[in-house]
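[Discussion] Sanity-checking designs against the backbone

I'm trying to build intuition for which residues belong where. Below is a structure token string of 132 positions. I'd appreciate it if someone posts a full sequence so I can compare it with mine line by line.
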């Protein structure tokens, strides 16, 4: 069995990807998020939720960048997401100015990857940001 097949078998046997997501709650400077093809947040860690004004990550589920950020910035984030999904490849180490829920700005280094479904189709993106 190849390393990729072993990894897929192991990960596919997990009860929930949320188990891995919860690990990122121990990295308060790392902001992890996953979005579906429509740009809706489907999973976030605690740091990402708090940066957006929520104490519970579940409160962010279903929202989009346009619900959380100034329109011009949201449009730029969505455009990069589109490039990741259409290109089917990651965009690493991008510098972004990101607003929090109070309107305060902070620079982050962001990496986004496409997420693939079981049939090989792109189902969304995952990203992680860390302070610059």
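Best answer:
Here's mine. Compare freely.
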């Amino acid at each position: 069995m190849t390393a990729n097949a072993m990894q897929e078998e192991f990960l596919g046997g997990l009860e929930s990807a949320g188990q891995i997501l919860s690990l990122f709650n121990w990295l308060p400077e790392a902001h992890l998020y996953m979005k579906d093809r429509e740009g809706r947040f489907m999973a976030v860690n605690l740091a990402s939720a708090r940066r957006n004004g929520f104490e519970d990550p579940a409160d962010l589920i279903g929202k989009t960048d346009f619900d959380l950020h100034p329109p011009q910035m949201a449009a730029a984030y969505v455009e990069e997401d589109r490039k990741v999904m259409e290109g089917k490849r990651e965009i690493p180490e991008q510098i972004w100015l990101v607003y929090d829920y109070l309107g305060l700005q902070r620079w982050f280094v962001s990496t986004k990857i496409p997420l693939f479904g079981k049939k090989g189709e792109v189902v969304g993106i995952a990203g992680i940001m860390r302070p610059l």
